[in-house]
Design brief:
The protein contains eight helices and no strands. 5% of the residues are buried. The chain is mainly alpha-helical and 203 residues long. The longest helix has 29 residues, at 163-191. Among the domains are: 1-80, Up-down Bundle (Four Helix Bundle (Hemerythrin (Met), subunit A)), CATH 1.20.120; 130-158; 163-193. Helix 1 runs antiparallel to helix 2.
Length: 203
Amino acid sequence: MFEAIAFYVFGALCLCAFLIVVMTNNILYALTALAFGMILVSGLFFLLNADFLGVVQIIVYTGAVVVMYAFGMMLFDVSKEVKERFQNQFMVWLLVSIFAIGLLIVVGNTQTTIPYQNDNSTNALAHLLFKDYLVCFEAAAIMLLMAMIAGIGVGSHKPEFTHEESNKALLNKDVSTSKESEKDVFKYNQSIPHNQLSQKEAQ
């Protein structure tokens, strides 16, 4: 009884959170609702006794993907609302509703009985990873470690010029260019005879 009530509560909260994600025009609200929805999905996994999937859901989606979205959000002005170019939202909602109702009818009429296995999925997964697929697991770990070291190396690379030095170099280049242009004009004026120069100035 408790599992059924918790399932419906988590499911309703998930739907509300993800509806906020797709309906709000504020990026900050959408990101917060997305993180909240991901945590609620992990709660559904815990209710199904899939502890490993619940932990992975929190670590990967809530802790990594949402954080990546947060860093991307820093590049935008979150105070401004997002303006949708596609104005015909009624057609989108109608198509989504028809698809959802059709999927509910198909899934609801399908009755399958799956035997319940009262074993810990975490222990079974650990047995597979560290016994049957140990070499593949270690190879994937080494590849991730190499990618992390490469990312740290690229991020810690000191540029040849700082931002201030680059601005100074551009300023000095502009000054030198202007001085060279002044010298060229002076040489051109010196090459023109005095009477022609006076006529050009008079014009």
